[in-house]
Amino acid sequence: MSQRNKVVASFAEAVRDIPDGATIGFGGFAMPGTPFNLIRALAEQGARNLTLVANTTGGAQQPRMPDIALLVENGQVRKVICAFTAATRASDVLPFTKYYEAGEVEAELVPQGTLAERMRAAGAGIPAFYTPTAVGTELAEGRETRVINGREYLLEYALPLDYAFVRAHRADAFGNLRYWRSQRNFNPVMAMAARVTIAEVDEEILPVGAMDPDDVHTPGIFVHRLVKVPPPPEGLWPQKRQERNR
Amino acid sequence: MSQRNKVVASFAEAVRDIPDGATIGFGGFAMPGTPFNLIRALAEQGARNLTLVANTTGGAQQPRMPDIALLVENGQVRKVICAFTAATRASDVLPFTKYYEAGEVEAELVPQGTLAERMRAAGAGIPAFYTPTAVGTELAEGRETRVINGREYLLEYALPLDYAFVRAHRADAFGNLRYWRSQRNFNPVMAMAARVTIAEVDEEILPVGAMDPDDVHTPGIFVHRLVKVPPPPEGLWPQKRQERNR
Amino acid sequence: MSGTKGWNRQQMADRIAREFQDGWIVNLGVGLPTLCSNTDIGGREVIYHSENGVIGYGPIAGPGEEDLNLVNAGGQNVTLKPGAAVVHHADSFAIIRGGRIDATVMGAYEVACNGDFANWKVAGAKGGGIGGAMDLAACARRVFIILEHTTRDGRPRLVARCALPVTARGVVTLAATNLGLFEPAGEAFRVRDLAPGVTLEEVRAATGCPVLA
Amino acid sequence: MSGTKGWNRQQMADRIAREFQDGWIVNLGVGLPTLCSNTDIGGREVIYHSENGVIGYGPIAGPGEEDLNLVNAGGQNVTLKPGAAVVHHADSFAIIRGGRIDATVMGAYEVACNGDFANWKVAGAKGGGIGGAMDLAACARRVFIILEHTTRDGRPRLVARCALPVTARGVVTLAATNLGLFEPAGEAFRVRDLAPGVTLEEVRAATGCPVLA
């Protein structure tokens, strides 16, 4: 393991091989844990016809950051799979909405816990599972349910990813990762679900052996490429949120 | 959270309320992570008609330690749910075997990964899931299977626990736990699956706030009672394994 | 309604927060529910859980105190209480789906007296904003809703049956509005509390289904 | 068979270990398979995974070097390599079931030329010892078996169909015995290697189904 160094010199190199049509998961919940630098590199790389999996369709944060809304605006996206496909306030209009309403991008709306569990299932070799979430709602219409111990559950299928883009706080060169506070969110689950996981990392990447085995959040066997995020302004970092006027 | 102190003075007090007929999960894989002290206290407490969930039926380790075989020999057990209900070498005879062959104790044999996943599912509110494990084997006979994307899977149900007995390395008084190396094994999963989790802890229990939130392996919301393991000989600790002559 | 009677936003949240019992694990939704964390509930300790895996968060971080990698479900920078722990998203929803959340507090567009409620999709919208609401609604032990009693144009939000797509069916424990605290009771709401100066007749006039005293 | 020809236990393990490619994640079962970690495979690095959640373990701990809270799947105290990580049991089997194990090596009572094998239950036993074998057999990318070619009383362990309850069906990649290395090929085994001094005729005489050169 000590010889296997997964560090890549640039974000461009880390995303170079992503083909048109790939399914990519993006960690992040609000600013923390969002792989802004990899997203920007993917926008520059230009792969098209992508399916993107993330909590939201992006574009709601102030200041505006490179999130998946950038890829949508860039014409690279065929479909998004998200827990939010519209703003929570009817008065807000997201960048995504225009493309969605015009039929230029498809969307699959998935409850947040189901979204996380579908990726966890993909990573865990579980092809399908039952959940109480969304039973009796529009999302369950026409879909398979099952009564178990007197309660009705909805059948949900695993959601595997071709690539996961994650952001971590600390890494060793083998790809063992640690996250800081709520930076963790979807990142470990997406790393499990993906064939190839690419991590952007806050801190200098440590030599193999520098991380205690009990302190690892995402084992290196799930991680394939690592890029250190440069200091600003070259690298993108979470910003202090600006409250919008309403 | 700071006021909520879950430390209990003795193993006897920690297990006092366990009723006849309870379903109890026991962490541990070989010596590491096995709650020997809680098991000994349960043997002294005397609850009967118990269903026990553990990796093995116990009794195979040298030196012999209080594991679930002790509870079986003590006549407290109705059923075990384990990944091993016989020795892996035909020449070995486990303490459990005599009771099982005499029909005094029932056994449900479950593949180890399915066992872990059934408890994880219980903890995660997933009532049932599909797995490729055991398809085409005697364990799948007469049971429900389903073909998903061309592969056959077996339906497995969640396995909830009334109590989990776990062993951890470090704890704070709120019940946040850390494990040392392979002590972790089934313990976090059983803590998730149980209504009441009781932890025996290697180190002095820390004040609330002394553990970094990113370093917690089992969050305190899953843990209800904590007992510090005294030094030997009063407290039971993993022993150096003695190889048996064969 | 007059602007001087009934509860204001903080008072609605206060009324719900007073239901919290010592040791409860509570998930507060974005918006009005967040105000529950301001309520003085005496010596009772509540553990706040957020969908992104934060267990035991504290007040919103003050200026200069923000950790930009630590937010609540609304994306606000929060603080942590002693004893806090962080888990990943699948484990966070394992906590929710596994029944460990004693109470969830959410906003809504509509609550029906059969316990249904709607809060993820407005009429005519193509998309929706579900977030963790469906998981929380289906799985938390108690679902508390905070909402204005009527829409801006005066139509009732407490109704016989939801007109909008529901978030979950039959799950609402209590709904707090500017007029009081109400419990779904099948074919009617039952009044648990009236806000100061509000009469039962006023509530009935502003509600889309029968209201029991 | 003569005691002087064919492979001994370590040589059987060596032959399997030489199949390991650089960067593979490998799970070694209890007993004979453990010997694979003794094999010199040159500059190739293999990551050993154990069912109890240890990723990247190293050699068995020497006297005085043991960590009593660190064991492999056989309960032996092992060491860790740099870059090791520990996960819990559900995550450990997520790694297995999720298809991340490049090869699993197990012992067996019987291997059939259709790729079935049996290693968890002996004839007439009431219980069985499955452990992680069924998960590994169903989900690892390659299943390597190490076993003596015949039972102590000379009956073949490489057979047309398993008589014992199987662990998984159609999954065996290669089986190493004291006589050589064999690949299940449907209605026959195909010889990949003969051990020194062993003839094809000897193999055929000791095998319960056709053997292809």
Automatic annotation (TrEMBL), chains A, B:
Superkingdom in the source lineage: Bacteria
The keyword Transferase is assigned to this record: yes
Protein name: 3-oxoadipate CoA-transferase subunit A
Organism: Caldovatus sediminis
UniProt KW Transferase keyword: yes
Molecular-function annotations in GO: CoA-transferase activity
Keywords, in A-Z order: Transferase
Lineage: Bacteria, Pseudomonadati, Pseudomonadota, Alphaproteobacteria, Acetobacterales
Gene3D superfamilies found in the cross-reference section: Glutaconate Coenzyme A-transferase
PANTHER family: ACETATE COA-TRANSFERASE SUBUNIT ALPHA, KETOACID-COENZYME A TRANSFERASE
NCBIfam families in UniProt: pcaI_scoA_fam
UniProtKB/TrEMBL annotation, chains C, D:
Family matches, as Gene3D superfamilies: Glutaconate Coenzyme A-transferase
Keyword Nuclease: no
Superkingdom of source: Bacteria
Entry keyword set: Transferase
Keyword Protein transport: no
GO molecular function: CoA-transferase activity
Annotated family: Belongs to the 3-oxoacid CoA-transferase subunit B family.
Name listed for the protein in its UniProt record: 3-oxoadipate CoA-transferase subunit B
Organism: Caldovatus sediminis
Gene of this entry: pcaJ
